[in-house]
Q: What sequence folds into this?
């Protein structure tokens, strides 16, 4: 079990490639599945959890012919390592913080992960950079088929896949697209967009999903309903609405460029300046400033940075990543100093971030 | 966790999504009902299972007495043993069979949350009948564990054989 391997690389979904990658960070689908012959997690004994873990581990490893999976017993990890996996979007906060036997199988390129004994016995997720839902659905459907050949899922003739929470029953599917919407935030239109999304039963969440605040102007748009519509229809609902939001964001950016070019350029340049010179900086301030810089790069106001590198900085400046990087547990004051050092180092390089150096 | 409005335990955990930023509310049954009645001018919206449950209690309360509600709450799933009250307070079901055992209570809830009551998507290639039969393993294992705890070894060994038979089907 070697998580340190992951600290050397970045997830595929951070590459900043794929359709509409200036605004769409990633496309993600997750499926919730349960084994028919065990209680749901809230009623499972330690013995049940162990057996669930064993049968799913065997099925997952047998179904994955490439053999390129990192299998991690989450309950045996240190807190900082669990947090590290949350920051990378490979496990959920609930999975990190719960108790008892649980595990995750991670694709080494971080295109997918499978959580065992989360809220449901199995949570499969596939993640890709850019706006790419069809390809994500195709992949997750294949992974699901491969596992289903080897275990019996809890399934009801009328209600579909049975889940621990009735809000997931049916398809067990959550389709979500993560968007970077700084201009809609600056022009104060974001709430209006949210209200209209809620009317068509789509949910809006922050960077780390359920209950998380929208830091760095990142928002996840996802389906709320899981029953009574096919997987394709659920994908389509999100796929249809995202271009509309992208369009709003682009209009808001154009408006800012036209109507307050100096203010916008000033905001972006100051953000870049602080990130390159600060001696101590909190995670929140970093996210906030990186968001402006990211938009600045997309609008051509900053020329010497790549989107992939900024995407990376959003993740690598978070607490657990910094601690993995330095190899020590750090108190928050020390983390803020370390974060500032890391940012200075990465934003002041001679080659302006185009080099192969990643750490 | 205590109700935010009084000292009773909070059994309803509502995430309010209609005000821009999500807001979490933890309320007892009475205050949840009150809260939902006061904001009843708005459409239900995707408030999750807790909000839908609270709304359902509110609807049930109109035609039913407290005793009837209490009786529904005490109903237990024969497979995993969870009561409807336990589900209501945790928001999580105990086993796949709960969808059958609590069908009368869950169907309106599902309709409330999803606006639909029938799955139209993907199906596993294995027959659902096999899935329902395997669900019985949950009950058999539980009964075997209880038999052993009560030193009823003969019964435990019968159950063990039945478990093996079902597992190999």
A:
């Amino acid at each position: 079990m070697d998580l340190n391997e992951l600290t050397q690389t970045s997830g595929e979904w951070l590459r900043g490639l794929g359709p509409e990658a200036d605004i769409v960070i990633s496309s993600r689908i997750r499926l919730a599945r349960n084994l028919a012959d065990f209680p749901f997690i809230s009623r499972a004994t330690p013995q049940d959890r162990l057996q669930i873990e064993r049968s799913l581990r065997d099925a997952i490893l047998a179904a994955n012919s490439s053999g390129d999976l990192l299998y991690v017993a989450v309950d045996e990890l240190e807190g900082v390592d669990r947090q590290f996996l949350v920051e990378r979007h490979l496990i959920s906060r609930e999975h990190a913080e719960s108790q008892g036997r649980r595990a995750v199988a991670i694709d080494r390129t971080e295109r997918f992960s499978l959580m065992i004994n989360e809220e449901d016995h199995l949570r499969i997720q596939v993640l890709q950079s850019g706006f790419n839902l069809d390809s994500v659905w195709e992949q997750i459907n294949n992974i699901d088929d491969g596992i289903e050949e080897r275990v019996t899922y809890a399934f009801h003739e009328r209600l579909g896949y049975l889940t621990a929470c009735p809000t997931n029953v049916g398809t067990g599917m959550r389709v979500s697209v993560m968007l970077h919407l700084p201009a809609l935030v600056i022009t104060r239109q974001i709430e209006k967009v949210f209200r209209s999304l809620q009317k068509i039963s789509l949910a809006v969440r922050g960077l780390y999903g359920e209950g998380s605040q929208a830091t760095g102007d990142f928002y996840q748009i996802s389906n709320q309903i899981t029953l009574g519509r096919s997987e394709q229809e659920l994908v389509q609902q999100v796929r249809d609405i995202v271009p509309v939001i992208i369009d709003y964001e682009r209009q808001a950016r154009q408006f800012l460029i036209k109507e307050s070019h100096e203010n916008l350029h000033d905001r972006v340049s100051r953000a870049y300046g602080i990130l390159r010179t600060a001696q101590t900086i909190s995670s929140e301030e970093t996210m906030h400033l990186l968001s402006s810089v990211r938009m600045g790069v997309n609008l051509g106001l900053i020329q010497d940075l790549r989107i992939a590198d900024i995407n990376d900085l959003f993740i690598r400046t978070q607490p657990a990543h910094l601690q993995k990087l330095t190899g020590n547990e750090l108190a928050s004051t020390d983390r803020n100093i370390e974060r500032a050092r890391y940012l200075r180092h990465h934003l002041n390089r001679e080659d302006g971030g185009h080099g192969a150096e990643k750490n | 966790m205590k109700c935010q409005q009084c000292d009773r335990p909070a059994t309803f955990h509502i995430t309010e999504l209609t005000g821009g930023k999500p807001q979490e509310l933890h309320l007892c049954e009475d205050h949840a009902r009150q809260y939902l009645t006061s904001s009843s001018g708005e459409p239900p919206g995707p408030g999750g299972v807790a909000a839908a449950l609270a709304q359902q209690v509110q609807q049930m309360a109109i035609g039913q007495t407290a005793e009837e509600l209490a009786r529904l709450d005490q109903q237990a799933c024969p497979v995993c043993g969870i009561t409807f009250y336990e589900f209501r307070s945790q928001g999580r079901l105990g086993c796949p069979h709960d969808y059958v055992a609590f069908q009368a209570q869950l169907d309106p809830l599902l309709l409330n949350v999803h606006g639909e009551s029938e799955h139209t998507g993907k199906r596993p290639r294995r027959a659902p009948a096999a899935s329902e039969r395997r669900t019985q393993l949950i009950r058999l294992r539980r009964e075997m564990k209880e038999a052993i705890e009560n030193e009823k070894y003969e019964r435990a060994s019968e159950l063990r054989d039945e478990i093996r038979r079902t597992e190999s089907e």
Notes: Residues 77 and 100 of chain B are 9 Å apart (CA to CA). Chain B is about 55% helix and 5% strand.
